[in-house]
Design brief:
- By secondary structure, this protein is an all-alpha fold.
- 69% of the residues lie in helices and 1% in strands.
- The protein is built from 22 helices and two strands.
- A two-stranded antiparallel ribbon has the order 1-2.
- Helix 8 packs across helix 9.
- The radius of gyration is 24 Å and the shape is globular.
């Protein structure tokens, strides 16, 4: 059995043997030799078609999802202005995750996914668990995103009095075919699409922040107004930073709501690790990757913290209330409505459509690469056929299969009994991602203790402490899932998946090793 491009058996002695001439020249150095990208790429059939601007905007797009545009109202309602500190705190933890992934990918940028390092440093069993689990998570998340795209599309045209509810299935099909086609053409076409998707999201956020600054400078006041998506009338106010500091408390609505806000923010950051899947197709990866990762904190401060400060300076945080149907109004719609933009809802939902389409586009890309890697690692001849690239240097078969799996979403949503079960599985998939993050941090610890460690690479500082801080935080987030009836089911389902599938992978690997030893007569 081969394991694609994961190089599990790599050891310090093998590296020295492969680079004997370099080792001789560096006999006085105790540092590991950094292999060239070209030498590592000998088994990499992908095309390095992603440019620096593609990767930078993919990284930005990975931090900005629909949750910021539509879900930030609920986050603010939960815990008020202290939500800013929650976003910063969770962002710092996700930065540690990205530094860990970045360091490992820097050492071997020929890998198609960071999951390969779990296989390399924690063993085949955990690698198999992580690989299949992550691919399933991507498919389930893709199903929810395609549903979201059609819902937002219908809402967007609904603001103009056009009812497209009867055509949701066709909207989903068209979006999926179009985005799958983008992924099949060439990786640089995918990168270009993500560049413009991200540009649209960034423009709206920058517009929000600029609007807040102008309103603050003018001392702008607005009357009580009816806002689309908000029950009743929202009270008027004067734009001021005192709207944030007035009556500030760390947990104004109780500590339970404060703790619950961590899981909401965590899921807003989910899939931030996507940039770690693009490295094997990036030009000059060892130059581009560190820049993309290190600028993560600045992006969080600008696009999340900046947006939240702007929102709460304009709309007092006490004005965010839950609607009768359990939903919350979009802060972005509220802000632009107060600024006099009567078509604010249409504008925001247009951007939300692009955000959801961007997420779906990235999910198809990532799912295709992960299925491609799983196929390369498989012993099944049928499965191995998915581990091939097309003439355009993309894993076309794996992309098409992944897209077809996502296509089941309209059928599932049409059957009431199955639809309710799907909601549980989709939410459980989000919870299971936490296990992947924990395994990634543990793999990073093993990497730092291995002969593969590159002291002169993209080194994560204070790794002994930072890795455990990240693991502890992910455990904390998972525990908070049990605190609410809305998330308890997904938390239990996630644990069952870990026990059942994780146990299967471990036992299968153990028996396979035993049979191999028996065949060798040991």
């Amino acid at each position: 059995m081969t394991l694609g491009n994961t190089n599990i058996g790599k050891a310090g002695t093998n590296t020295q043997a492969a680079d004997a001439s370099d080792a001789t020249q560096n006999a006085q150095s105790t540092q590991s030799h950094i292999k060239s990208v070209e030498s590592l790429d000998k088994d990499n059939d992908m095309e390095r078609g992603l440019k620096n601007r593609h990767v930078q905007f993919i990284a930005i797009g990975g931090t900005i999802g629909t949750g910021l545009f539509l879900g930030s109202g609920k986050s603010i309602a939960l815990t008020g202005p202290s939500i800013i500190f929650v976003y910063i705190g969770v962002g710092l933890i996700m930065f540690l995750l990205m530094r860990a992934i970045g360091e490992m990918m820097y050492s071997d940028p020929s890998q198609h996914t960071f999951i390969n390092f779990i296989t390399r440093y924690l063993g085949r069993a955990w690698g198999k668990f992580a690989g299949w689990t992550y691919w399933i998570v991507l498919i389930l998340t893709g199903m929810t995103e395609i549903t979201a795209v059609s819902t937002y599309f219908v809402t967007f045209f609904g603001t103009f009095g056009i009812d497209l509810n009867a055509w949701k299935w066709l909207i989903e099909l068209c979006f999926l075919v179009a985005l799958t086609g983008i992924n099949l053409i060439a990786v640089k076409v995918f990168g270009e699409a993500e560049f413009w998707f991200s540009m649209i999201k960034i423009t709206l956020i920058v517009g929000l922040i600029v609007t807040a600054v102008v309103m603050l400078f003018l001392g702008f006041s607005y009357p009580a107004t009816h806002i689309e998506g908000v029950d009743g009338t929202v009270s008027g106010a004067t734009v001021s930073l005192t709207n944030i500091t007035d009556g500030f408390q760390l947990a104004p609505n109780g500590w339970m709501n404060f703790f619950m806000s961590f899981q909401m923010v965590f899921f807003a950051y989910q899939l931030i690790e996507f940039v770690g899947v693009t490295v094997s197709e990036t030009q000059n990866p060892r130059k581009v990757l560190p820049k993309a990762v290190n600028e993560l904190i600045m992006r969080i401060l600008i696009f999340y913290v900046g947006a939240l400060v702007a929102i709460m300076a304009i709309v007092p945080w006490r004005n965010f209330h839950q609607n009768a149907d359990g939903s919350f109004g979009s802060p972005f719609i509220m802000v632009f409505k107060y600024a006099g933009l009567d078509w604010a809802a249409a504008l925001v939902f247009f951007v939300v459509i692009t955000a959801a389409a961007s997420a779906l586009n990235s999910l198809i890309y990532s799912a295709g690469r992960h299925l491609y890697q799983l196929a390369q690692d498989s012993e099944s001849p049928a499965m191995q056929r998915l581990g091939e690239v097309s003439d355009r240097k993309v894993p076309a078969k794996a992309i098409i299969v992944s897209g077809c799996m996502i296509l089941f979403s309209p059928l599932i949503n049409a059957i009431p009994g199955i639809s309710s079960a799907f909601v549980l599985f989709a939410s459980a998939a989000s919870a299971v991602v936490i296990f992947i993050y924990v395994l990634t941090m543990l793999a990073h610890r093993r990497y730092r203790q291995s002969a593969d460690f590159l002291p002169d690479g993209f080194v994560m500082p204070a790794w002994q402490v930072c890795d455990w801080i990240a693991v502890a935080f992910y455990v904390f987030v998972y525990v908070t899932l049990f605190l609410s009836a809305d998330t308890r089911g997904s938390a239990i389902a996630g644990l069952l998946w870990l026990v059942v599938f994780g146990g299967y992978c471990l036992l299968h690997e153990r028996f396979q090793n035993r049979d191999l030893k028996a065949a060798l007569g040991k």
